[in-house]
Every structure is written in structure tokens, then in C-alpha cells.
Amino acid sequence: MSTVEYDLLVIGFGKAGKTIAMTRAKAGDRVALVERSRDMYGGTCINIGCVPTKTLLTDAHLHAAASSGADDGTALSSAQNRRDTLIAKLNSVNKKLADDAGVTVIDGDAEFVAPHTIRVTGGSDELTVTATTVVINTGSTPVRPDLPGVDGPRILDSTRIQHVPGHPERLAVVGAGPIGLEFATMFAQFGTSVTVLDHSDVFLKRFDRDVAEAVHSDLEKLGVTILSGVDVTGFTSHDDGVDVSYTGGDLQADYILLATGRRPATDGLAPDAAGITTTDRGAVRVDEHLRTSAEGVYAAGDVTGGPQFTYVSYDDHRVILSDRWGDGSRTTAGRLIPSTTFLTPPLSQAGMSEEQAREDTEGRGHRLDMRVKNIADIPIMPRPKILGEPQGIAKFLLDVESDRILGCTLYCVDSQELINLVAVAMSNSIPASTLGSMIYTHPSSSEVFNALLG
């Protein structure tokens, strides 16, 4: 077993880690990046998360628009092939970018033996790596509930479902969060009969009820059945399918998707050996500068237990660069983080809910102004109608006295782009009326700002 020394060691090839690694290598530091699987060069997002799933969703949407969802398996197979081709290219490109930047990529499993000493194991080979600065960027892993029969061959997580063989006629999705609903949308558009088993009594609990009801209605029109307030109690696998038992009944499916969340991936990392504290769920505890309890050791991305978005991980890299090699002015405090669930149309949100905004304004002696319209009823916003997707709703929550946007939910075509402009306005205290008075190209989805804020 040999020992090597670096200025910076990054554990995990995710968004924050790879960006820090390449930035510091280009600055002249000796940098190593440890990744346990060559299939994950580039991180979760490009290999098994955002990019591959949105590729499948796009192909499903195009297929449904062209054929009303009927599929003999050819469309799904074609989408899977396109997904694999794209991901293989991105995986290779990420490795080359790291190599070209001067980053030493080490394949293997990392385990702390001291705050700045990590043992890397690859097969029978072991390597000890020491570094002045360490960044933990190991991401998250799917939660697999402890239920009878959960290890059956047709019970898949969000990674394995992307290569489901053939074309499932019936799919049961356990979980009604973003992952579950995106896959439910995708498979329904490929013609699969989808049932979502939702543990919560309230569908899309963190969204306002008018928005949640609109989403629920559209999913049902798409052919997705949603069972709320049910607990799955077990699975029984057969050669040609699997039975799902839940409180109140049973159903049969060809495959099950477990979309029951993801947890920080710290198994085997031995953070205790480095004096790094973690939560009960295994998340690495960090402060607003993303410092861990061990001096010179940082953590970024999903492994910290925060919002599981690749763009949050990207901002994390800026926070760490600022603290370790800059003026320390950038922190995670007060970050406004928009989100999008890629349904049809996309569902995006930033800021407060209606209840939160009402409490906030009343607590400050201000008034709340709610601007809400169905997308189909906005005549100056024809783009959704042109695309044949007029469904949806737009909702702005405004502080009357300050003319500020407190919260926004956009369930409409292009909302994944629009919500970013809203977040810029909110973060920089740009008045709502300013956003509404701007001149926008036509026809464009941004005309929703003229319609509701002008």
C-alpha cells in the first residue's frame, strides 16, 4: 500500500466536487478526485439523474403527442437507446475534462482513517491519500423501505427503472414526490397504465391546494391513478409480475418503482474516523460555509442533507471556493432555491406558499395580494396554446406595501425557465410591477408576467 499527497482531495465526481477539482487544478494545485464507479464519472445528474430522466421524459412527451401514447415497446426502447448514447458521451467528456485540467482521477471506495487521510480501495489494491483540503461530494442513494418482498426482481429504484425491459403495461409507483410523479408522467405518455401509491393524505402537500388540484386533474387525464393516504405493506413477486399490498387493497403490476426518497451516501465513508459529525440519516453536518466539524474538510451537494438539486451543488462549489481560497463572503445563508418537477407541463415554485405569505404579511401589518389565473384564460400568452398545452395555472403572492414577490408557482409550458427570472427578481428585491411592465417577445411564455403583474 502506497501513500500519495495532494493539496486537494475530492471524494465523489458530482457537480460541486468536479467543478472545485478542475478549478483548483487549473490554478496549479495538486488535485485528486476519487470515484467508486467509472459509470458515475460526472456525477449523478448526468449519469442516472437529471439528464437521462429528462431525455426519457422528452421522448415520452414527443411520442404521446404523435401517437396518443400507444406503444408496442419500440418507442420506449428507442428512448432508452438515445438516453444511453447521450449519457455515455457525457460520461466520457467529464472524464476528459478532469484529465485535461490536471486532476488525478482515482477509481475506488474512499474511507477516512484521519481528518486528512483517506484509504482508497479498488479490488485488492489499496492507496492512502493525504490532502490539505478535503471535499466530500458523495451524493445520495435511493431509500429502499424495509418491507416484505421488497427485494423482488421486478421492484426497481429510480436508476434501474430507466432500463426496464420491454414495455410494462402496468406500473405501480410507490411515492408521490418529484421522482415518482416524473416517472409516472413518462410511462403514462408511453402508454403504460400507472398507479401512484401516495403515503400522504394530502397530494402535493407542500403546494397550494389550487395548484395541487390542477396537477392531480391533469395526471388523471393522462391516465395516472393516484391513491392518497395509503401505506404499502408488502410485495409478492411472480414470474410475470408483482402484487402490491397496501392499506385498503391490493393491485397487480408488471413492475414497481420505489420512489420513496433518497438519503445521503455516507455508508462506508467512516466520517467518525475523521471527527466528522453526521445526522441520524447519515448527512454530513456543515455550517453556512459548508465546513464540517473537521478543520479543512468540507461537504457539498446531497450528502449534506439539503435540497437534492444539482444546481444547489453547483452553488455549493462557489461557497467552498469562496471560503477556502477567496474572501469568504459567499455562504448558504438565505439562499432562494427555485424548483421544478418535470410534469406535463412543468411545475415550478419559488419562495413562500399562500399560507406562509399570509402569515408573513399579517405579521408585518402588510396586505397580501394573490394574482392567480388559469393558463388557458390568459389571452396575451398564446405560446402554450400554440404548443397544444394550454393547461396549467400561474400564481403570484405579492406584498402590497413593498410591491415584492413573496412566492410564485408556475404550472405551465416553460415554467422551468420562467421561475429562474422570478427568483432573480425576488433575490434582488426587484418590484413585481417592474417585472410586469417589461416588454417581452411574442409569442412567449414570459408574457405571463405582463398578464399577472402588469
Question: What this model shows, in words?
Answer:
With 454 residues, this protein is of the alpha/beta class. The chain is 31% helix and 27% strand. The chain has 3 domains: 2-141 and 263-325, FAD/NAD(P)-binding domain; 155-260, FAD/NAD(P)-binding domain (3-Layer(bba) Sandwich); 339-453, 2-Layer Sandwich (Enolase-like, domain 1), CATH 3.30.390.30. The protein is built from 12 helices and 22 strands. The longest helix is centred in the N-terminal third of the chain and has 28 residues, at 74-101. The relative contact order is 0.11.
Short description:
The protein has 454 residues and is an alpha/beta fold. Helix content is 31%, strand content 27%. The strands form 5 sheets. Strands 1, 2, 3, 4, 5, 6 and 17 form a 7-stranded mixed β-sheet that branches. It has a 5-stranded parallel β-sheet with strand order 8-15-9-10-11. A 5-stranded antiparallel β-sheet has the order 18-19-22-21-20, sandwiched between helices.
